[in-house]
Each structure stands twice: as structure tokens, then as C-alpha cells.
Design goal:
The complex is a heterodimer. By secondary structure, chain A is mainly α. Chain A is built from 12 helices and 2 strands, in the order αββααααααααααα. The chains are: A mainly alpha, B mainly alpha. The interface between A and B is large, with 110 and 103 residues.
Chain lengths: ~300, ~280
């Protein structure tokens, strides 16, 4: 029997499709099913159908609502900081030109560092008394004494502090991708704008940013999705504290499941979280990204 | 170089100074980690902190390497990442080839679904995934964890490999078929060798994703298959805050991938930009 092209293509895709069905789609189905039950944390324990009970419990809890807001705030903070710093660095690399290559390489290394390592490292750098950040700030006179800022113990600034390792790790990603985008802008477009008298800020706002738009859109989406999933970096630094001030949705769901032993409630929270992520992502893909549109 | 390069000498000097400052600041945290790992254990918590070790010592490295479970965790990390990388390639290469060569509706749907997989928060699938892995009797094994890691790296691998196949002209497989190769033979003997560079890039990304992953490792392993990120995290609970050991282990764990990356940096940048722009 001769295989048609279409069958041959399907046959090549089947293994990957089966894998994703078994290890992504099926767990998601189970997650959604679990969200309708009150489940005993002991394996093989009783399950009681509670309908939307877990959802109403989650939505009524201030912990869930504030974690959701915090996740959004964290995502916006991380992505905008990375974007601004990344674009500034990419422009600096471009202004210097080819000879910045060695520095671009050095700049790349945090990309390879495990988030757990980054989280612990920054916890170490930010410890109140013996951390080098406060010691240096005190040395140059910005702080009175090294214990003036409790980066990770002050609940008002902790969400900002736990974002630092993420920003540190991935500004490099932003910078490199935006730099590659800048290299693809035709030189004569920039020259022409320059001849017309465009300089600095105007050149950036009127010419460069519009031309970079597709690259910018994609990097913001990719980074936004990753930041909204943040888990290990925050867990390692604060465990969500103090007073839950750095508890994002991933941490809350994890603790609801593992610490407080409420798999049903955790599943309902995770289902809502997943639905929002998918909705945002699908909207972004359809309107901005449109993969395969050119194919 | 394009029109963004600035040539005025005075400005250039200023830009260079700025660049050096930025890169030094950016590199400092990891440099400080390395320096700390060579300090005598008590000095790691000195107030005020010191930058350079008063005396260089490998004591932290010796202690961490001798501590329970650390060498085993390295072996677990290496085996998990290797299995996951192989699995990603074996599944992604044929799928990506089919997607780019035949452009069927199923292929387009597949790409969209693979992309959407990237949006799924690991914490949402982690628990039900662990019961699936458990029913395969693979809980707390490198293979079980590697399967979980492949759910992360497979979609990206499919994207990356699709871009690399895209760059190979269709005429190449056509010519191979005219010369008597079967369709599978054309893929295996002619196309795969051409995209082997792209496969290397894809492999590095899959390896890195597994090497650095934490949440699935936390949920799917307990003792036997514990990976090094968990061992690093354990230093804060088991031994109080043993910064000397933590920095030494973190350095040991980071240096191989940093070296690998510097070695292959040109390909990594290509992969990053491709991965970002395409998926």
C-alpha cells in the first residue's frame, strides 16, 4: 500500500502528539475534574463531588484575590523593567557597533544560571545586615546604616525585591533579542531619518520602536507568560512572606496543595489561573503574533 | 553595521565607559558568588561583608562535595537532562519536518497547540502529571522527571526545528527521492545531516531547560532522583543558612553550562532570537 503524503506527515507527527496528549492534555483534564471535588490529601482517600464549591471558596478568599493581583503586579513590574533596561542596553550595543561583541558575550551568562541559584544568590546579596548591597549603599552614603532597608523582610517592598533576580536573569534575553531586531533595521532608513533631522528621542520613538514592533510584541508576550508563572525564584527568597506579601498564584496553589492538603481547592484555583493564561495567550497569538501567517 | 552606530570620538569614549560600567555591574553578582565560594566558611557572613577572600580556600567545595546526596544529585541532573534532551529531539524532529514539508491542516493545528502548551503554568499540571507518572511507576526516577521536563522543551523544540527545516530547500529532498531514496530515507540521509547544527542548538535549549528546572523536580522526586537545584535549595533548611556551601554548589552547578554556552554562543544567540521571534 502506498502512503499518501498526508498520511506520511500525520505518521511523523503522531509520536509528539501522543506525548503531549498523555503528559499535558490528560493532566489538564484531570486538573479540571479534580476542581469539582473535595479530595482528601491522603492517596486513595475519599472524594466528594462539590460542583462549583471550590470555585466559590477560592473566589471568596481574600488570599486568592490578592495573590492574583500580586501576580499581575509582579508580571508588569518584571516585564517593564526588563524591557526598558533591555532596550537601553541593546541601543548601547548598537551605538558601539561590532566591537561590543565581547561585552555582549559576557552579558549573556545570567541566561544560563538556574533560577534557584539566582534566587538564593540575590537573597544572599540582599540580607539586611551582612548583604553586600546594603553595605555598598551605606558605604557610598545612600543609606545611614546597612540595616536601613529590609529588602526581603519589609512587606511593603518585598514584591519589588523578589523581582530583582528575575530582572537580572532575563534583561540579557531582552537585550539580545532586541539587539538582533535592531541589526535588522535597514541602515538607510535610519540615515534618511537622520538627514531629516531626527535625533535621539524622536528617532527612537518615531522610527526605531515602530520598526521593532513585531519583535517587541513577541518578547513582551513571551516574557509576560514566563513572569506570570514565577515560582522557584520567589519560593527560594521568601517562601511567599513576609505576611504573604510576595505570595503569587503559583506559590498559593502549591501551598494550598502541599502544605494545607486541599487538592480540590488548589485545582480550582489552578484551573482559573490556567484559563486566564490561555485566554490572554490566545488573544495575543491571534491579534499580534499570528504564527504561520506568512507560511 | 547599520545607521545606529555612533562615530563621534568624544561620544564614543563616553559610550564605552557606560558599557563597561553596565557590564561590570551586571556581572558582579555572579562574580561575588564565585569569590564567596572561596572564602573561609565563617567569613561568608562577616559584617560588613568583604569582597575578596582574606584567604583563598577550597574548603566549601570539599565540604559540599562530601555532603550527603550532592554527587548523586549531579548524576541525577545529568541523566534527567540527557534523557529529556534525547526524548525532545526524537519527538520534535519528525514532527517539525512533517509540519514544514507538508503544510497540512493538522500540522498548522499542531503548531498552535504546541505553542499554547507554553502558556500552561507548571504548577497547574504538576500534581495531576505526578499521578500520571506515578501510574507508570516512574515517580522519583530520572526518566519520570525527564518526561515532565520534555513537556516544557518539546513545544520549543518543535518551533526551533521547524525554523531550521524551513531554511532547507524542498529541492534537496526531491533530489534525494529522484536518486532512489524513500521518503524516510531522504529525511534520514539527506535532510538530517543538513540541519544537524540546528539540532545541536535545539538540544542545548532542551538540556538547559531540564538542567535549571525546579518545580517539577520538587513535585516528582523525593530522595533517589533528587536533582541539584533541590540540593542547592536544601542548604537553606537543613543546615541553617550555609552560604559557603550554597555558593560553592551553585558555582559547581553553573560553571559547566556557562562554559558550554560561551563555547557555542553564536548558535545560542541564533536560537534565542529564532525562538523568541518564532515561538
Amino acid at each position: 500500500m502506498r502512503l499518501t503524503d498526508r498520511r506520511f506527515a500525520a505518521l511523523l507527527m503522531v509520536p509528539a502528539a501522543l506525548f503531549l496528549a498523555a503528559f499535558v492534555a490528560w493532566p489538564i483534564v484531570r486538573l479540571v475534574m479534580n476542581s469539582f471535588y473535595d479530595i482528601s490529601p491522603i492517596a486513595g482517600g475519599p472524594r466528594t463531588f462539590v460542583g462549583l464549591g471550590n470555585y466559590t471558596t477560592a473566589l471568596a478568599s481574600s488570599g486568592f484575590r490578592s495573590s492574583a493581583v500580586r501576580t499581575l503586579a509582579y508580571t508588569v513590574l518584571v516585564v517593564s523593567a526588563e524591557f526598558v533596561l533591555g532596550l537601553a542596553t541593546a541601543l548601547l550595543f548598537s551605538a558601539i557597533g561590532r566591537r561590543s561583541a565581547v561585552f555582549r558575550t559576557i552579558f549573556m551568562y545570567p541566561l544560563m544560571i538556574a533560577p534557584v541559584v539566582a534566587g538564593l544568590l540575590w537573597r544572599f546579596l540582599l540580607i539586611d545586615n551582612s548583604g553586600i548591597v546594603n553595605a555598598l549603599l551605606a558605604r557610598v552614603g545612600i543609606l545611614h546604616s546597612a540595616s536601613d532597608i529590609g529588602w526581603l523582610s519589609n512587606s511593603r517592598i518585598v514584591l519589588f525585591s523578589v523581582a530583582i533576580p528575575d530582572i537580572w536573569l532575563t534583561t540579557a534575553f531582552m537585550a539580545l533579542v532586541l539587539f538582533a531586531g535592531l541589526q535588522n533595521i535597514p541602515g538607510d532608513v535610519i540615515e534618511a531619518a537622520r538627514l531629516d533631522g531626527a535625533k535621539g528621542w524622536t528617532l527612537l520613538r518615531r522610527i526605531i520602536v515602530p520598526l521593532l514592533r513585531p519583535v517587541i510584541a513577541v518578547t513582551l508576550i513571551v516574557r509576560g507568560i514566563d513572569a506570570a508563572k514565577a515560582f522557584d525564584i520567589i519560593l527560594i527568597q521568601t517562601g511567599g512572606g513576609p505576611e504573604n506579601a510576595s505570595q503569587t498564584l503559583s506559590l498559593l496553589i502549591y501551598r494550598t496543595m502541599v502544605r494545607f492538603g486541599e487538592p480540590g481547592l488548589a485545582s480550582a484555583m489552578a484551573t482559573m489561573y490556567l484559563l486566564v493564561m490561555l485566554a490572554v495567550a490566545v488573544a495575543a497569538v491571534v491579534t499580534i503574533w499570528r504564527p504561520g501567517a506568512d507560511a | 553595521m547599520n545607521g545606529l552606530e555612533i562615530r563621534r570620538p568624544a561620544t564614543r569614549t563616553l559610550l564605552w565607559a557606560l558599557l563597561v560600567t553596565v557590564v561590570v555591574l551586571y556581572a558582579f553578582p555572579f562574580l561575588y558568588l564565585l569569590l564567596t565560594s572561596f572564602k573561609p566558611p565563617l567569613e561568608t557572613l562577616a559584617v560588613p561583608p568583604t569582597v575578596l577572600p582574606s584567604r583563598w580556600t577550597a574548603a566549601n567545595y570539599a565540604a559540599v562535595w562530601a555532603s550527603h546526596g550532592v554527587p548523586a544529585s549531579f548524576i541525577n541532573s545529568i541523566s534527567t537532562a540527557t534523557i529529556s534532551t534525547l526524548l525532545s529531539l526524537v519527538l520534535a524532529v519528525p514532527a517539525a519536518y512533517a509540519i514544514t514539508r507538508f503544510r497540512t491542516r493538522a500540522g498548522r493545528l499542531f503548531v498552535m497547540l504546541a505553542l499554547i502548551t507554553r502558556m500552561v503554568p507548571p504548577v497547574a499540571v504538576g500534581i495531576p502529571l505526578s499521578s500520571t507518572i506515578n501510574s507508570l511507576h516512574l515517580l522519583d526516577t530520572p526518566t519520570g522527571l525527564a518526561i515532565a521536563h520534555t513537556t516544557i522543551s518539546l513545544p520549543l523544540s518543535i518551533w526551533l526545528m521547524s525554523s531550521f527545516f524551513e531554511a532547507v530547500p524542498d529541492e534537496l529532498d526531491e533530489a534525494a527521492k529522484v536518486d532512489g531514496c524513500s521518503r524516510l530515507g531522504a529525511l534520514w540521509r539527506v535532510v538530517i545531516p543538513v540541519v544537524s547544527g540546528g539540532m545541536a542548538v535545539t538540544a542545548i535549549f532542551a538540556f538547559l531547560a531540564s538542567w535549571n528546572e525546579f518545580l517539577f523536580a520538587l513535585l516528582l522526586t523525593s530522595v533517589r532522583a533528587q536533582t541539584t537545584p533541590l540540593a542547592i535549595a536544601n542548604f537553606q533548611t537543613q543546615f541553617g543558612l550555609d552560604w559557603g556551601s550554597m555558593t560553592a554548589l551553585a558555582a559547581l552547578y553553573s560553571i559547566p553550562v556557562i562554559l558550554l554556552t560561551l563555547l557555542l554562543q553564536r548558535h545560542i544567540v541564533a536560537g534565542l532570537t529564532l525562538g523568541a521571534v518564532k515561538g
